[in-house]
Amino acid sequence: MEFKEFEEKMAGLLRERFGETAQISVQDILKNNGVTRRGIRVVTGEERFTPVLYLDTAYERYLAGETAGEIFEGLMEHNDSQIREMETAWDFQPEQFADYSYVKEYLRLRLVNYGKNTELLRDMPYVRWNDLAVIFYYEIGDGQAQIQINNRHLALWEETVETLYQDAMENMKNSVPDELFPLSDLIGRKASSWMGEEPPIYVLTNSTGRYGAAAMLYTGKIRELADSTGTDLVILPSSLNEVLLVPDLEEKRQTYRETVGGVNRTVLEPEEVLSDNVYLYSREKDAVELLGAA
Q1: Are 61 and 16 within one domain?
Q2: 214 CA to centre of own chain
């Protein structure tokens, strides 16, 4: 069965399950770094939440030997689980989302690559930061679901990007504080790909480990580490979820660039890549800046 036939099969099974009155749409969904995933959504008119069922990974399971029926039931189980989690976490009526005084408490931010997301950024407020962009999202519950903030939300609230940035930054500091620890603590996890590098490497992320690279924006721990080592620091973006810090040694800068590029191409999924560039924390400027282009 080719992918198009598989897609039609899943849509047909959904119509059988939910009836002809259900609105079933199959669409390409733009994700981080220009990655497009094929998704299918069902709107029955009865649910406030309609998670997207992604078909790409489902088709891979079909090619690996699962039947279409087994895959469909798995998608339905996952869909029901998502809806239950979101319903549990959603502790306000949908109309309250129009009230910025309520929304601002749950605003969060994350970093994405600016150059790889120009199309995505057309429809959302953002702040440029080096070769990256700061974007915003509304977090539901403990992160079970998110609403990505777009320009229509900003117009609805009659607020500015600067206000979003200030409120989200304050929330990040209070709700998802930064964490800094030696890379050796991550033995057995994917970041162990960096092991063996000298001098010692430290990991900077946040308390959830989700979108932890954004801790570069609000952490004081970078400055504290630089003061303790007596050097500027090179910052290696290992993924959206964390960055690595090493004392700056000029003779190793090119090696660091090559290592970042290699990990991005061979270890990370395309959606997880933050940047092929590396950054420098300057003690004199107390700022993070690009350390040359990749």
Answers
A1: yes
A2: 10
Report pLDDT for 202: 94
From residue 93, how far is each of 60, 102, 103 by CA, in Å? 38, 11, 12
* Residue 112 · residue 137 · CB < 8 Å: no
Same domain, 279 and 201: yes
Query: 126 and 219: one domain?
Result: no
- Same domain for 31 and 51? yes
- Assign 121 to helix, strand or coil: helix
190 and 252, same structural domain? yes
Query: SS3 of 142, please?
Result: coil
The number of distinct structural domains making up the chain is: 3
Confidence of residue 294 (pLDDT cuts 50, 70, 90): very low
* SS3 state at 32: helix
Q: What is the DSSP letter of 249?
A: -
Q: Is the peptide bond before 199 cis (omega within 30 degrees of 0)?
A: yes
pLDDT per position as a tens digit, 121-155: 999 999 999 999 999 999 876 666 688 999 999 99
Domain that holds residue 216: 178-290
Q: What does the alpha-carbon distance between residue 165 and residue 148 come to, in Å, rounded to a whole number?
A: 14
DSSP state of 5: H
Residues in the chain: 294
Domain boundary (55, 89, 123) is at 89
Q: Token match 């970078």: residue?
A: 222
- For residues 182 and 282, membership in a common domain is answered with yes
pLDDT level of residue 185 (50, 70, 90 thresholds): confident
Distance set, CA 144 to CA 88, 140, 192, 223, 250 (Å): 10, 6, 27, 32, 42
Q: CB under 8 Å to 80, separation ≥6 — which residues?
A: none
* 3-class SS of residue 128: strand
Same domain, 144 and 160: yes
